[in-house]
Design brief:
alpha/beta, 8-stranded mixed sheet, 4-stranded antiparallel sheet, 12 helices, 12 strands, about 25% strand, globular
């Protein structure tokens, strides 16, 4: 069995909304299991509409939230094992890239300050001269340079430029895993593909795996090795990106794919996606059944189990759109 870089094992995260007596429970993540092998870097995209639990899962991987049920392991070490947790080593191994780069950097500090602090305080470089050389090299790899960045404040950059600096900062620690939470959502459309192109290039150059959190299936299709689809907090489909996007197994993934404009198609109306409803998170049968065109009485009475479709594909559905391989 291949060594795992990351293992998410039956993880659930529950929030309480309102008071202790009259409040409601919201299961933001519901029994999610995923893994990334060590050795070969990959880009795993976690996709789904707003409110499906993507960012909550991301924050648990980053140790910003603690799972209420289940466990997460990094290189075999359990997050629940506090004795073996080394905060410095975790920062070296796992780095975040957030949605809005202007919120990542303080307007009162020059951008290069953050780069030097990361290199020097984590002991990656022995002195400033060594740090300058390393930072400049990494900045060149993301299309920037220390000469351009030095002494400038965040407001002196475009969103795309500043996000490149965020990526460079994450790479300084030579991480094994980068969590990119909607990294192109706040960027001009003309720059989006430049950023996701960087992920593909850097994955191989730095031997780093990415978890790419997004609701943008067009970029997910382009950049991903694997795709995991979430709906109302649960994992409903997982597999190689091309297989999922070309032949979705779950009706919800099919709905998402049909909403992606394709070359030559006319796009005359907005896609209308459902708002988040607390009651749908609490459904004890198939959560997608109220909206599914293929739903049967079975779907409205019981929750399906994850089934294997052959290869690396799996789907949470009684009536998979893809026939199981023999």
């Amino acid at each position: 069995m291949a060594e795992k870089l990351l293992e998410i094992q039956n993880v659930s995260k529950i929030f309480r909304i309102g008071g202790m007596l009259m409040g409601k429970k919201l299961v933001a993540n519901d029994d999610i299991s995923l893994s990334i092998d060590a050795g070969k870097p990959v880009i795993l995209s976690i996709v789904g509409e707003s409110g499906c639990g993507k960012s909550t899962l991301c924050k648990m991987i980053l140790r910003l939230y603690k799972p209420d049920i289940g466990d997460i392991k990094l290189l075999g070490k359990s997050y629940a094992d506090r004795k073996s947790y080394d905060p410095k080593q975790f920062k070296l191994d796992v780095q975040p890239i957030f949605q809005n780069p202007f919120e990542t950097f303080s307007a009162r500090k020059t951008v290069d300050t953050y780069l030097f602090n990361t290199a020097l305080r984590l002991g990656i470089c022995k002195n400033k001269q060594e740090a300058e050389k390393m930072i400049d090299e990494i900045l060149h790899n993301v299309g920037m340079s220390l000469e351009v960045v030095r002494g400038k404040y965040p407001t002196q950059f475009s969103g795309g430029e500043l996000q490149r600096v965020s990526i460079a900062r994450a790479l300084i620690t030579r991480p094994k895993l980068i969590i990119a939470d909607e990294p192109v959502a706040a960027i001009d459309a003309s720059m989006k593909m430049n950023i996701v192109n960087l992920f593909k290039e850097l994955k191989d150059k730095y031997k780093v795996s990415f978890i790419y959190i997004t609701h943008d299936l067009s970029t997910a299709y382009y950049v991903s090795d694997y795709i995991a689809t979430l709906y109302r907090g649960g994992l409903i489909e997982y597999g190689p990106a091309k297989e999922i996007m070309d032949n979705p197994a779950h009706p919800y993934t099919e709905l998402l794919m049909n909403a992606v404009p394709r070359v030559g198609d006319k796009w005359n109306e907005d896609m209308v996606m459902p708002d988040m409803e607390d009651k749908e998170f609490a459904i004890t049968y198939c959560k997608f059944a109220p909206r599914c065109p293929y739903a049967t009485e079975q779907c409205r009475k019981a929750r399906p189990e994850m089934i294997e479709l052959g290869g690396q594909r799996k789907v949470l559905c009684f009536h998979s759109l893809v026939k199981k391989e023999n």
